[in-house]
């Protein structure tokens, strides 16, 4: 082993020497590259003499770099020597069988680089010189020729990679010359190599097919789509004993032929001649050839879209397409490896071609609905993760939401084409889910999701009147109790779907008890999962807004059912981890729903006062108890008592949203007195804890509501409230304060003049303090927008 070989080994094995010695080795290797001509001869000599793989690889890499970077520095004699030596290494005296694949690939890459630079002008016949003569050729030479074609495709010819203008021009030059000179011989070589080695050396036969697949897109299609090649390819695909890598390679070639760009009539003739339908018979084979089947179906569809209006070609293209569809459906339902996005795009295109679907097409649309149902089902492996969402469950939910987007687009397309068939499909799903205890969480969730999404495709009029099967499906939904109803994803989509079809109930009031039961029992607000319960509260509030007066006969029932929920809202441990992670709904929507019901003038005055007192008095008593208990200790912003006080104020605020000034001050003054008393209690919080920002924010929001409904009767409360809101407030607090002042001015005009005159000095004083402290702040916490508003 000489010094160069030692240096090369140190270059590739950095852990074998100290950094100083390795640096010397790298410098020695770089020095050997100084003279391109000397380097060329050195590398060719070592490639023939050295048995060390690392040395051989370094030499090939150095030759490749020299061609790419210093080709112009090589003399004609050097290049002549290089050509003959590379030809020898690739054919006459090939690398030994024990040589690793990466070494052979590197040799192929070097030859491909030289072809790119010199073919056909300076090196007119590299392919004829390298093309193995079968059956006498050495299998190593056949392998090397396949690697050369693959390397040339990767580095120059393939359009799958971005190319520079110079590279694109070189690719066109090489392709044009190959078409004129050697492509027919190469195609013949592929056929001979596959025929010869399919049994004795399947890997070598598969390598030949792989290179063929790469070149089909730009060679004459007749060279491969002919009476010799097509039977051979399908024999490899269909033969029961065919090695899997050989079957896959043959299928790849057929797919490349199918995808070959050409005019629609030529493509249709090609597809008919291929008879790909041979592979549709066996389910196992269909799964193995999923990519071929979906690609073939897409091309048949493209032909049909172009030629469908023509009598003969249109019927032929439709026949090919519909012949492939059952296999496409089977692939979508059973093959995880297939690109579902491409298949969904294909199915969407197929549905878009339908105007008045035939009976057969209606059947296919039913199969598409089944494909959608299967694809939107969650994996049962994540069932527990989705019930009580952890990181894995949330990720699965996000991924499924993304996967479902295109599927729902396809679903809407099917709904538009066959609305009655879609309703019948959903009906069968619901009937099965309700009658079978074996239908699992994922299947029930998918069925309800499809029913929910169907609501997006029908008019409000159809929902109100129960058009089609909706008059049967919606009542079935309202009374539904699934065996897996306690699971979070089922309960959530059930409530969303009930809400989606609420306008049907608005027109058919006999179903109101069913709706109330759905929201008020364990399927909704009383569901054991907090996420479901809170979402149920929000959706129930939306239902109340829609139905409102129609719910008056059920007021007692509703309030009795919500009694425990109301009490639980203000007594729960709000610092628990479960509640902190429960989502955007905070449960106060239950109070808003109650307020909407109690705020109706149709409620008898004495009943209204009784119900309202039953809600307000416990909340006020709880505030007083918390304040009394807190006098002896300071409250931190995150303490449990502060959080509880916030929840109480939120509940009061939400409750007040159902009332208006005309009712509170005009027709039902007793209601106004109760809200005024409640405000007095809430302001005690502000008096005792003016600096606790979360409480200050909630109280400010409550004051806005009280200004809206109490009118001028709020005036006695304002001096204390405004004074306390100015205590040590900062720029953002002052902006909130000024918004409240603005509301007072807009609502009461000059009636608040005296109050504003009294409070103005304090406002101006505090504003100047804020401006002097913050006006020139530039840190990350500076609230410049708030400052400018001042």
Automatic annotation (TrEMBL):
The keyword Coiled coil does not apply. One of its GO terms (biological process) is tRNA re-export from nucleus. Residues 320-774 form the Exportin-T C-terminal domain. GO terms for cellular component: cytoplasm; nuclear matrix; nuclear pore. It is found in: Cytoplasm; Nucleus. Keywords: Cytoplasm, Nucleus, RNA-binding, Transport, tRNA-binding. The keyword Iron-sulfur does not apply. Residues 100-254 form the Exportin-1/Importin-beta-like domain. It comes from the Eukaryota. One of its GO terms (molecular function) is small GTPase binding. Coiled coil: none annotated. PANTHER family: EXPORTIN-T, EXPORTIN-T/LOS1. tRNA nucleus export receptor which facilitates tRNA translocation across the nuclear pore complex. Belongs to the exportin family. This is Exportin-T. It comes from Phoenix dactylifera. The gene is LOC103702052.
